[in-house]
Amino acid sequence: MANLPFGAMLWALLRNVVGSAFRTLLFIVSKQPANALDEMVAMGSILVHPFRLLRARRARRPPGNRQSRKKAYIRIKRLMTPRGAAWRRLTDMVQGFLAGQAPVDSAGRHHHSTAEEEDELPPPDTGAVKRFLSRPGVVLLLALTAVSLAAERSLLGGERLGGGALVPVTGGAGDLWAFYTEGFHDVGLGSNAWAPPYVAVLAALSTLALGKTWLAVSVLLLGSVPLAGASAYLATRHIIPAVPARAWAAGTYALLPVATGAIAAGRLGTAVVFVLLPLYASFGTVLLSGERRRARRAAWGLGLLLAVGTAFVPLVYPLFAVLGVLAAVAFGGVRRGVVTSMAIALAVPVALLLPWLASLVTDPGRILLEAGLHDPALADPVLAPESLLALSPGGPGLPPFWVTAGLVTTALSALLMRRQRMIVAIGWGVALYGMLAAILVSRVTVEGARVWPGVPLAFAGTGLLVLVGLTAHRLAELRAGGGLRKLGATAVVAVAFSTPLLAAGFWVVNGVRGPLVGDAPDVLPALAASYSKNGERTLVIEGSAFTVLHARTPLIGEAELPVDSDARTRVRTAAQGLAGGRGGDAATLAQHGIAMVAVAPPVSAELAKRLDSQPSLQRMSLSDAGGLWRLAEPVRRVPAQPGSALHTPWLWAQGALVLVAALMAAPGRRPSEGVESSSVALAGA
Q1: In whole angstroms, what is the distance from residue 354 CA to residue 197 CA?
Q2: Whole-angstrom distance, CA of residue 9 vs CA of residue 7
Q3: CA–CA separation, 409 and 424 (whole Å)
Q4: I need a labelling partner for 152 at 20 to 30 A (CA). Which of 29, 52, 596, 601 fits?
Q5: Which of 438, 445, 254 is nearest to 263 (CA)?
Q6: At CB < 8 A and 24+ separation, what contacts does 73-81 make?
């Protein structure tokens, strides 16, 4: 700063103050108070002594006229840090912190150069952006993003994403927070049950998205393929050492039929779990690695992510719990603290989701369901054996069998290898476990719909991909041997790469084929919404089903609230009487706050005639957009019911638990000698 021109000195001062403050924050979060203090003292020594800096600048000012001083500054500039080097060091520091590494001194230390070092020119900088874009993980992410945008072209640019299992996305972050925190939910026929916990996750993400719920849902659902590829690539950095094998495994995982099927059917829960599943595998291997401090941090992190996945798909918890207990039993005798770490990982989701999980215990069938609506048309009644073998869960938007046949063939060829039999056994064990769970849950019917086995098949696909990735180096050794071995290894590699290429090509050509649309219609007629300003409810009839709505379209999660069975039965009987022309009990509808009856399009002439014949109904409109009738009976306003006495205290306790778990999972200082690789630990076991 003493040598720089005045303008460059001010910019350098600002840049160093911001960078030093950011590094101090990283040191504090990573539990390195000594380094944080060094950063503050170093920057403070400049800020609290401005006159010393001025004296130094005056003493170092080159003599002569303006032209000679300019030449001196040019010579000084050759010894300065190259353009972008400070930004590169800061980004490397942040990337290391996100990867679980504590910030090290070389990323942000205040370096005092010696005379010998000043004689050496710094190496040229190729540019942080260019280096970042050339990384294999970034190339993979950009490729998957391009494939997703091309395949989802019909869903982009719409006003309202919805269809299938996804309720048309409306409202903002404030609406979701209000829905999650209120004790009594004045939606439908009213409910004082606990709101689904995934609503809090969506509310938090919507808050980060500047209150836009549609943006958060679009990123999670439509961006699940590139997000899953990125998480798989990052999560396997300690499991699969070879970068090409990691990139192949991540790309293949992201394009599994589970992902494309979840997007086509609007299954937001499966999409979120599909992104988190590689992180479960990564945290699980770190937990079993043996280094006690890292294992405990991994246990808390795994518990938090497992709670998020369980909130969207409750089936995730029992599926992972079985594997976790087996791993704790297998490794508990040879790794200290494994049992305790696994207990922490399994206890955190239960503690965070306790009231909601308790309501699931009273209705065990709901454990097999996921976030969203449950339409019987979204799942196949009977899955063919070849579909399960191809990791295809059935339903709309799935590729044919031959697209993923290459992955299964490559995994079967690994059974012929003589080495690494333990890895092959573990990988196929996880795969068969997922397939068996998929067979069992796909035979179960809950609320009139077959359970979709997407999440169990995602478990199976993860096992197969890790197995192939860990044994990929054997193919390179066989190719180097020449002869028939080289020919066979080349054929296996070609078959393996056929899966992501065929899956991407098929998805791009055919697009998203399913009930999910980018411009879903509003389920509540605009005329009904304008007449429902005083809290009146609207009975919407669609075929043989009915829904009770208020003055707005329901938010995500509201349709999943349990309703009193007696009230629902009385309203259903009255609605069937009106629609069947049998003189339905309009007084029952009015007693439950229902003031209007809407019929979703298309409205048959016979149904309209029957409703017009009811003396208790007055037609307000009838067109291709639907029909609307108003009850002549005086409507009774439904009073709010008190919620659970534990509701508000539990919300505060839940927030405190999340904060404690996040702090316990924060990375700390690592030993300088490094730690044992998870793949080595897995192979040694």
Answers
A1: 10
A2: 5
A3: 14
A4: 601
A5: 254
A6: 73/4, 73/5, 76/3, 76/4, 78/121, 79/118, 79/121, 79/122, 80/4, 81/122
* Three-state secondary-structure class, residue 162: strand
Using alpha carbons, list the distances in angstroms from residue 81 to 87, 104, 144, 452.
11, 19, 36, 57
Q: Which two tokens stand for residue 454?
A: 């997407």
Q: Quick one: pLDDT band at residue 430, thresholds 50, 70, 90? A: very high
pLDDT at 590: 80
Task: Give, as one character, the DSSP assignment of residue 191.
Answer: B
Asked if 322 and 284 count as a contact pair (C-beta separation under 8 A), the reply is: no
CB of 442 closer than 8 Å to CB of 450: yes
Which amino acid belongs to residue 669? Answer: R
Point out which residues pair with 450 in neighbouring strands.
Answer: 445
Selection from 371, 467, 453, 483 nearest residue 416 by Cα:
467
First-to-last C-alpha distance (Å) of the chain = 56
Q: Is the pLDDT of residue 206 over 90?
A: yes
Count of helix runs (H) and strand runs (E) in the chain: 32, 7
How far, in Å, CA of 266 to CA of 260, rounded? 10
Chain-centroid distance, C-alpha 229: 12
Amino acid at 587: A
Diameter of the chain measured on Cα atoms: 106
For the record, the structure tokens of 547 come out as: 């829904």
| Cβ-based burial of 664 (10 A; exposed 0-12, middle 13-18, buried ≥19) | middle
DSSP per-residue codes, 619-648: EEEEETTEEEEEESSPPPPPPPPP--TTHH
537 beta partners: 594
Whether omega before 602 lies within 30 degrees of 0, making that bond cis, reads: yes
* pLDDT confidence tier of residue 343, bands split at 50, 70 and 90: very high
Specify the DSSP class assigned to residue 194: P
Distance CA 227, CA 191 (A): 35
Extract the tokens encoding 43. 């920057």
Interacting residues of 81 by C-beta distance below 8 A, sequence separation 6+: 122
What's the pLDDT score for residue 127? 55
Residue 530 contacts residue 546 (beta carbons within 8 Å): no
Strands 617-623 and 545-549: unpaired
Q: Is 666 left (phi over 0), alpha (psi -120 to 50) or beta?
A: beta
pLDDT at 85: 59
CB 258 within 8 A of CB 442: no
DSSP 531-566: T-TTS-EEEEEETTEEEEE-SSPPPTTGGGS---HH
Tell me which residue of 307, 162, 197, 168 sits closest to 561, measured CA to CA: 197
Q: What is the DSSP letter of 517?
A: B
Please, is 258 exposed, middle or buried when counting C-beta atoms within 10 Å of its C-beta (0-12, 13-18, 19+)? buried
Amino acid at 171: G
Helix, strand, coil percent values for the chain (each to nearest 5): 60, 5, 35
Round to whole Å and give the CA distance between 460 and 468.
13
Nearest to 108 by CA among 215, 27, 204: 27
* Residues 589 and 633: beta-carbon distance below 8 Å: yes
Other Cβ atoms closer than 10 A to 501? 14
**Alpha carbon separation from 528 to 158, 189, 439, 536 (Å, rounded):** 23, 17, 45, 9
Predicted confidence (pLDDT) at residue 74 exceeds the cutoff of 70: no
pTM of the predicted structure, to 2 decimals: 0.77
